[in-house]
Amino acid sequence: MTLDQDYDKYQRPFRIRKSLRELVHKPRASKSSAHSALSLPPLPYHDHKCEEYAYDVLFECQRGSLALGYSSKTLLQFDPNPWCDADMRFTPMNIENYQLPDPTWQWVSKDWMIDMTEDVDEAGWQYALKFHGAVWHGNYKHFRSFVRRRRWIRLRHRPLNSQQLQQQQSQEPLLLDLSDTTPNSSSSAPPDMPYSEKDITEKLQKCRLDRERLAVLNGAIKSTLPGLEDQLLEKAIDYMDMFDYDDSKYKFLTQLLQKKYDSDQGKIHLTEREKKAVQSLRFYYDVQSILNSIDPDVVTR
């Protein structure tokens, strides 16, 4: 056996276990990384035992140049998304559709604000050669400013004392009037259907958040008499298209189908309209969860 054969015998193939996007997206470890984190403005003075304040942070990212202009549409495959969280990671939300963590929180700031506390230009942008592992600066430099980012912040607050929270909720006006329409309304519903299709659509269009849309549809579901759920199922897909998130679509459809079908029924046959509504869900797990919530042993798709 020759030396070349011995070398081929013990030679191991070289494999890259991570994708190019993961390798480029991962920031380099540097000694100054601990000092490169952007600081936030100080929180308002408050009693930590009774209330809590926190900043929500979003980064707006763009690529380009001063001559050609910057845009989020020119971002490369290994660049961050147009909108990122405080850690420069993907987030499906932006300043237009950002939602609070839960109903106990309230916005202190009326709108999102551009953070101007760091080294930024007059519009709040920071420039760099690339998004990860580069030094950010507030002034444009030739051949060192191919990307830019801008930080948006918004302050939120919630009371931690349960008594204060109940008092605050009792004083808060409702964001949406969920009461039934008056008899003088131009779009009166049938006597067996307290919510007409036009009423539901108008109320959904006034909603800004998914939890408000769920409140409208849950009220319509609860007020619907048994056996009349098909009137809601006819427009289920249209109502689901008004939601921003798949989890909200899943919750609405689950509650509607659970009211129509109960465990006392025999073999359940989903109608074509119901099948289309279930199949419109994005995730296979949600589809199976709905079928199992009805009854996994009796459902016929």
TrEMBL record:
Residues 177-197 are annotated as: Disordered. InterPro entries: Peroxin/Ferlin, TECPR1-like_DysF, Tectonin_beta-prop. Residues 124-159 form the Peroxin/Ferlin domain. It comes from the Eukaryota. GO terms for cellular component: peroxisomal membrane. Residues 180-189 have a biased composition (Polar residues). It holds the Pfam family Pex24p. One of its GO terms (biological process) is peroxisome organization. SMART domains: DysFC. This is Peroxin/Ferlin domain-containing protein.
